[in-house]
Every structure is written in C-alpha cells, then in structure tokens.
TrEMBL record:
It comes from Cyberlindnera fabianii (Yeast). It is a multi-pass membrane protein. It is found in: Membrane. Keywords: ATP-binding, Coiled coil, Membrane, Nucleotide-binding, Transmembrane, Transmembrane helix, Transport. Residues 74-94 have a biased composition (Low complexity). This is CYFA0S38e00232g1_1. Signal peptide: none annotated. Gene3D superfamilies: ABC transporter type 1, transmembrane domain (1.20.1560.10), P-loop containing nucleotide triphosphate hydrolases (3.40.50.300). One of its GO terms (biological process) is oligopeptide export from mitochondrion. The chain crosses the membrane at residues 124-145, 165-184, 249-266, 272-289, 352-370, 390-408. The lineage of its organism: Eukaryota, Fungi, Dikarya, Ascomycota, Saccharomycotina. One of its GO terms (cellular component) is mitochondrial inner membrane. Belongs to the ABC transporter superfamily. ABCB family. Mitochondrial peptide exporter (TC 3.A.1.212) subfamily.
C-alpha cells in the first residue's frame, strides 16, 4: 500500500550512497507492453488497521510505505541475493549491524553515563541523600551490639564514642536518625524517578529523530516494529541503568565500604578471613556480567523481531481474516514468542547459577566466621555484642557484594540495550538535509531536466530501473508520465524528491544539480500526493493543514473547493472537526485522496507531483481536479502526473511514455499521440483495457464463488437447525 503524505513536511532526510556503473554500450529501447492494471487486484483487498504506538507508526510507516510501494511496482520477478561486493556494500550501509559480542561494552557504558550528564545536579543531590540514608542504616548493627553488651548493666546507660547516654536519650536520638533516614530515602527515590523519566524522554526523542532522518534504503531494510522496540523497551532499560541502577550500585559501595571499615575496627582477623571470598566472587561477577550483556542484547533483538510480527499482523487484521490466515499468523507469532522464551530461559538459568553459587559461598563464609568468632569469645578476644555487630556488618557487606554484582549485570543489560539505540543514533543519512544552497523562487519556475539518468534500487542492485533516461519538463507544463507496470514511473518521483540519489547522470532544476540544494528547503517547495494516502489520527482540518503554519481562512476555503472536499465534509455533523480515525480508515479512498489534494493545494507549491492521486475519484470530482490543474498551468506552475486512466491523461499538456528498459519511448501531446494508431500510448492504453476486462472477469468469478459458498453455508445451517428440532421432539 502506498502512502499519500506530505513527505516534504514529514521526513525531509532520505537518500543512500549511489553505486555508479559504467555501461560499455547502450541498447536501443525495447518496448514491451505487458501491463498489469490496478483493476487486476483482488476485490477483497482491504485497508490495514492501525497498530500500537500511533505517533511513531504514523511517521515511520507512512514514509516507508511510500517507498515500498514504488519498489513493488518496478518488477514482477522475485529477486535473488547478489553475492558481489557492490551488493554487500549496499546492504551494509542500510542495515543496522549489531555490535561485536566479544566487546566488553565499556564504551557503551561510558556513553550511558554521558547521557545522564544534563541531570548532574539532581543526581548529586540524590546521591547525597543516599549517603545520609545509608549511613543511618549502617548504624543499626552498632546500636544492637551496644544493647547486647549493656545487658548486664540493665540498660540504664549506653556508652557511644565515650559519651554516656541514658536509655531514653539514646532511643530518642535513634528515632530522630531513622526519621531523617526515611526522609532522605524518599527524596532520593523521587529525584531518581524524575531524572529517569527525563532521561528516557530525551533518549526516545533523539532516537525517533534519528529514525526520521534515515534514508530510504535504511527504511527498506528495517521494519517499523524493530524501531518501535528500540524506542520503547530498549530506552527504558537504558534509563533504568543510569538512574536507579547507579543509585543501587553506589549504595552497595557505601554499605560495603562502611561495613568493611567497621568489621576491621571490631576484628581485623575475622575481616581478613571474610575478604578471602572477594576474588572468586569478583571473577564470577565479571563473567556473569559479560554473559548477561550478550543475552540482554539478544533478548532485545528477539523482542524487536516479535514486535515486527505483531505490528505487521495487527495492521493486516482484515486481510488475515479475509484469507483465513488466523491460525498461520498465530503460529508465526508463537514461533517468535518461543525464541524470546529461549533467550529469557538462558538468562534466568545464568542468573540462577550465579546467585545460587555466590549465595552458597557467602553462607559458608558466615559459618566459618561464627566458628572462629565463638572461639575468640571463649578466649576473651571478643564480646558477644561485638560478634553480633560483626556478623550483621558481614551480612550487610555480603549483601553489598551481591548488590554490586547485580549493579554490574544491570549495567551490562543497559549496555546491551544501549548498543541497539546507539547503532541507530550513530547512523548518518547518506546526504545531510541541511547542507547546500537554498533554492530560490526562480529555480522552481525553471525547467526540470533528467539528464542520462541511470538507477537501480539498493535492495535490488542487479535490476536496472533506468538506463540513460532523459527528458525535460518546462515551467507551467502539466506533464503526464505513463508506462507499463515496472517501467519506473513512481521512481521518477522518488528520485526527484531525492529519497534516493541517481547512480548515473543528474537531475537538474534551473540548470543546477538538485544535489547542490539544501534538501529540506528544496522539498518545502514541492507538493506530493499519492494514490493511497495514509492520514494521521486526528481531524480532517488537522490533516489538511498538516505542516502548513501560515494560511488564511480564504486560502483554506479555496483549497477545499478546488479539491472538491466541501461536498462530503458538509455531510459530516462535525465538518472539518470530524475524526478521520487511525490512518484515515473511517474515510473512503476517494475522500482520503481529496483531503491529500487539498493539503497540497493549500501549500500552493510551484511544483506539484501527483502519483495516481485521482484513481479513486468519481468523474465529477476528477473533472473539478482537472480544472484546478489547468488553472495551475495558467498561473505558470508545474504539475507532474503519473497515471494510467485516459480521463487523467487527456487533461495534461504533454505525455511522456516510458518503456520497460528505462527509456523514454515517445513524447507529445495527448491528441498527437492518440491520433497515431501505431503510437506507444495507444498500444499501452489497449493493453490497459484488456487487463481491465480480464480483471473484471476474474472478480466476477470470485464473486460467484463467494455467493455459492454463502448459499452452501446457509443450507448447512438449515440442516443443522432441522436436526436440532427433530432431536428436541
């Protein structure tokens, strides 16, 4: 399905690295008229419904569908993989390649911390609050130890750092400390959550911006579902890694440091014994962290693949139901679910083995400490309170070591997710959108020239679309480009808007190569209307004025009239405020086309490109549009139409006929070409009529089959009803 969208407003940065071939010889044009009319499409084709993440999908899918529709129209052959160097190079520039799995990920970790740099002040405050709450928490073992050692003195006074405190004073001070700790902990959580939300919002915005700036080759090779996965789950994991996880890691470091210091003050012998566990636990944590990072990256990739499938299925629900493909699609989704489960199971097994082993070692260490501590109490080297405090600090320190292990593993998960996001953010489009000279108004009132253009799509480098294509469009002309299916009609639009760059030759405006223009400024002066508009969720008014900031009510009213939109808008109770539904599914194809036309007419561009944009219009609406286009010619504005209907072609001032070999086979006015019985245009239109008759016959046969199936179903229901009645009797 092709998307009719004001692409010059939505996605202004697209192109790829051209591959230039030198042709040793040029063959004369070979004309072939094997035309596949749009009428041969199945009668039960349906509009796709929207999936999740409306805003992201509206931008990405609308842009992408425009290009995929062009590719599908170029060839009816199945494309094979090309193992040549040029193919590999082309593919590598458009696909996202995963990071090296053997890399430690410390480069990604550094970038993770840099992401949080704008939030340095609130993060510092949160860490100070963390230090306060941790210090108070670490005082608990000391308090309990003092209580135990004061047991024989009936707990009347307690000595703290040489100060004698009464029991009530001690309890009061302790209570105040705990209140302060609770307040500090609350502030820490609130600040970190806020910072996390800011971070994930910033990261998602940057990632979406990077996605929208990518070239057509990139969007041809990367499905929307994977991009949505990077925007949603990957961004959340990264945010958690540099906010809450950092807090937990610092808490573990503080608790561990204080715990070890206090244990050294109590007994350096017991502390030395406990520290013997640090090297093996540290080595295990490092190995576990690297393993969990790779698994996390694989898991996020699998989730991205799962999202791709779900997005595709949800947007094609009606088609799936029409062809009875529910079971097949559920099976396809289940296969991807199993893939996610397998990786999740590996991650769970790895985590279980790590925490189980380290927990066992820590518990064995505590048993050893109890044994040695009991011996020291017997020898008078320790008191019961000191051993109790030591054991509690040992537990705190052990928990801190587990916390550090978890911190490292979560950091590695964040690095794995960040790698996928950085792959996208770091990829630069082939041609910058803001570099180049700004086109002038005079440039757009000058001729458009295709000079010896050669081109092939990066996804199909072995199939030549254009071979020495040359033609010229004068200002104020309404040129209609026609040709058989696969001749590259829509590709001309794509090349002119620089969604792709030509491989050979050049496209010029006012004698200047369009590559020299600032791409964003260049596209702002061109209006584009496609056959299948993909409108945004919102009102009719919002869709018509999309991307157009300055307009008057008179200009809006004029655009509505010239696009023949007023007729059906007046039938809606809400008028221009009528909600069109996701992708405009609540409107008919003709209504969507007229809204898209009104948008371009409101923009009032000097150059207007129409790609089968009147295919769904009735004769009255088409006549109104034809009058509008005639007026544009009178005003000296250029219009390029791609069409196959005679009613559209005959209103143009000149017709360019393309052949399958990528050449212009003939050009002239409609009357001149139509008057020649041997003209390529007449042969093409004759093939078109034959294809239309054939399509009608096929559709009639399908309708007969559907009616017969419905009659058989009714007969079966009647028989079942009779059986039920006889059974009741």
């Amino acid at each position: 399905m092709r998307s009719t969208l004001h692409l010059s407003r939505v996605l202004p940065h697209v192109r790829f690295n051209p591959r230039v071939e030198l042709l040793g010889s040029l063959r004369p044009p070979i004309i072939s008229y094997r035309l596949t009319s749009s009428l041969t499409r199945p009668i039960n084709s349906v509009n796709q419904i929207h999936g999740h993440s409306r805003i992201v999908q509206s931008s990405l899918r609308s842009y992408r569908s425009f290009h995929t529709s062009i590719i599908r129209r170029q060839s009816q052959q199945s494309t094979k993989e090309v193992s040549s160097t040029s193919t590999s190079t082309s593919t590598s520039t458009s696909k996202l390649s995963p990071h090296d799995s053997k890399a430690s990920g410390f480069g990604d970790i550094k970038r993770l911390f840099l992401l949080a740099k704008p939030e340095t002040t609130p993060m510092t405050i949160a860490l100070c609050l963390l230090a306060v709450s941790s210090a108070i928490s670490m005082s608990i073992p000391l308090i309990i130890g003092k209580f135990l050692d004061s047991g024989n003195e009936q707990l009347q006074t307690i000595n703290i750092a040489g100060y004698e405190l009464t029991m009530y004073s001690f309890l009061g001070i302790t209570g105040i400390m705990f209140i302060i700790g609770a307040i500090a902990n609350t502030g820490r959580v609130v600040i970190l959550r806020t910072v996390g939300e800011k971070l994930v919002a910033r990261l998602r915005t940057r990632t979406l911006k990077a996605s929208l700036e990518q070239d057509a080759a990139f969007l041809d090779n990367n499905r929307v579902g994977d991009l949505i996965s990077r925007l949603s789950s990957d961004a959340s994991i990264v945010s958690r890694s540099v906010t809450q996880n950092i807090s937990d890691g610092i808490r573990a470091v503080l608790s561990g440091g204080v715990g070890i210091t206090m244990m050294m003050l109590v007994s350096w012998k017991l502390t030395s014994m406990m520290l013997l566990l640090a090297p093996p636990l540290g080595a295990m944590a490092f190995i576990y962290g690297r393993r969990i990072r790779n698994l996390s990256r694989d898991l996020q990739k699998s989730i991205g693949d799962l999202t791709k499938v779900a997005e595709e299925q949800l947007n094609a629900t009606r088609t799936i139901q029409a062809y009875g493909g529910e079971i097949m699609e559920v099976g396809k989704y289940a296969t991807n679910v199993r893939s996610v489960f397998k990786i999740g199971f590996k991650e769970a097994t790895t985590s279980g083995l790590f925490f189980g082993t380290t927990g066992f070692l820590a518990n064995m260490g505590l048993i050893a400490l109890l044994g040695m501590g009991s011996s020291m109490i017997h020898n008078g080297a320790l008191t019961v309170g000191e051993l109790s405090s030591f054991m509690m600090y040992a537990v705190y320190t052990g928990s801190s070591m587990f916390g550090l292990s978890n911190f490292y593993s979560e950091l590695m998960k964040g690095a794995g997710a960040a790698a996928r996001i950085f792959e996208l953010n770091d990829r630069k489009p082939a041609i910058p959108s803001t570099i180049g000279i700004k086109p002038t108004f005079t440039d757009f009132k000058a001729p458009i020239e295709f000079r010896h253009v050669g081109f092939e799509y990066p996804t199909r480098p072995n199939i030549k679309i254009f071979n020495d294509l040359s033609f010229k469009i004068l200002p104020g002309e309404h040129v209609c480009i026609v040709g058989p299916s696969g001749s590259g009609k829509s590709t001309i639009t794509s090349l002119f808007l620089r969604f792709y760059d030509v491989g050979e030759g050049e496209i010029c405006l006012n004698g200047k190569n369009i590559k020299d223009f600032n791409l964003r400024q260049f596209r702002k002066q061109i209006g584009v209307v496609q056959q299948e508009p993909a409108l945004f969720s919102g009102t009719i008014l919002e869709n018509i004025t999309y991307g157009i900031r300055n307009y008057t009510n008179e200009e809006l009213d004029s655009a509505l009239s010239r696009a023949n939109v007023k007729i059906f808008i007046s039938e809606f109770p809400e008028g221009l405020q009528t909600i069109v539904g996701p992708r405009g599914t609540q409107l008919s194809g003709g209504q969507r086309q007229r809204i898209a036309l009104a948008r371009s007419l409101l923009l009032n561009p000097q150059i207007l490109v129409l790609d089968e944009s009147t295919s769904a219009l009735d004769s009255k609406s088409e006549k109104t549009i034809a009058e509008t286009l005639d007026q544009r010619c009178t005003d000296g504005k250029t219009t390029i139409s791609i069409a196959h209907r005679v009613s559209t072609i005959k209103h143009s001032t000149r017709v360019i006929v393309l052949g399958r070999e990528g050449y212009v086979v003939e050009t002239g006015s409609f009357e001149e070409l139509r008057a020649d019985p041997h003209s390529s245009l007449n042969m093409l239109l004759a093939k078109n009529e034959e294809a239309g008759d054939s399509a009608s016959s096929v559709n009639d046969q399908k309708m007969d089959m559907i009616v017969e199936a419905e009659l058989e179903a009714e007969k079966e229901e009647e028989e079942l009803a009779k059986r039920d009645l006889s059974f009741d009797k």
